[in-house]
C-alpha cells in the first residue's frame, strides 16, 4: 500500500535538511512511545474523539500511553509532522503493538470485534 511521497530528487538540496528535520522531535517522541508501549494514543487537548478513544480503552481495561500535542489553538504545525509521517489525517492516532490502527471509531470497531484483544495477545 505504497502512498505517494515526493521523491528526494524533486527537493532542492538547499531545503533538504529543513524537510528532513522539521519537527523531527515530535516524530521521535511518538516513535519512541510506540516502541516502548503496547498501546499509544496521540491526541491534543480539547478533542472529543481523543477522549472517546481513551474512554473506550479504559472501559476495555486496556492500559495505554497518552501523548497530547497542543490544542486546537496551538502546535498544529507539530501535529502536521505526525500526519505527514503516518499519512493519517486526523487525531487521535492510535497505535497497537507498533501498528497504526486508525482513530477513535476504528479503535471501537477493533474492540467490538475482539480484534484488539487478539492484537494484544
From TrEMBL:
<dbReference type="Pfam" id="PF00462">
    <property type="entry name" value="Glutaredoxin"/>
</dbReference>
<dbReference type="InterPro" id="IPR036249">
    <property type="entry name" value="Thioredoxin-like_sf"/>
</dbReference>
<protein>
    <submittedName>
        <fullName>Glutaredoxin</fullName>
    </submittedName>
</protein>
<dbReference type="GO" id="GO:0015038">
    <property type="term" value="F:glutathione disulfide oxidoreductase activity"/>
</dbReference>
<comment type="similarity">
    <text>Belongs to the glutaredoxin family.</text>
</comment>
<dbReference type="InterPro" id="IPR002109">
    <property type="entry name" value="Glutaredoxin"/>
</dbReference>
<dbReference type="GO" id="GO:0005737">
    <property type="term" value="C:cytoplasm"/>
</dbReference>
<dbReference type="GO" id="GO:0034599">
    <property type="term" value="P:cellular response to oxidative stress"/>
</dbReference>
<feature type="domain" description="Glutaredoxin">
    <location>
        <begin position="40"/>
        <end position="101"/>
    </location>
</feature>
Amino acid at each position: 500500500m505504497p502512498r505517494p511521497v515526493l521523491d528526494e530528487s524533486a527537493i532542492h538540496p538547499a531545503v533538504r535538511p529543513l524537510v528532513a528535520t522539521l519537527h523531527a522531535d515530535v516524530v521521535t517522541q511518538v516513535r519512541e512511545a510506540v516502541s516502548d508501549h503496547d498501546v499509544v494514543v496521540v491526541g491534543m487537548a480539547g478533542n472529543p474523539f481523543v477522549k472517546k478513544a481513551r474512554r473506550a480503552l479504559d472501559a476495555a481495561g486496556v492500559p495505554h500511553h497518552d501523548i497530547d500535542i497542543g490544542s486546537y489553538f496551538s502546535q498544529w504545525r507539530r501535529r502536521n509532522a505526525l500526519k505527514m509521517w503516518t499519512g493519517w489525517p486526523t487525531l487521535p492516532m492510535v497505535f497497537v503493538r507498533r501498528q497504526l490502527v486508525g482513530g477513535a471509531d476504528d479503535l471501537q470497531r477493533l474492540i467490538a470485534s475482539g480484534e484488539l484483544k487478539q492484537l494484544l495477545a
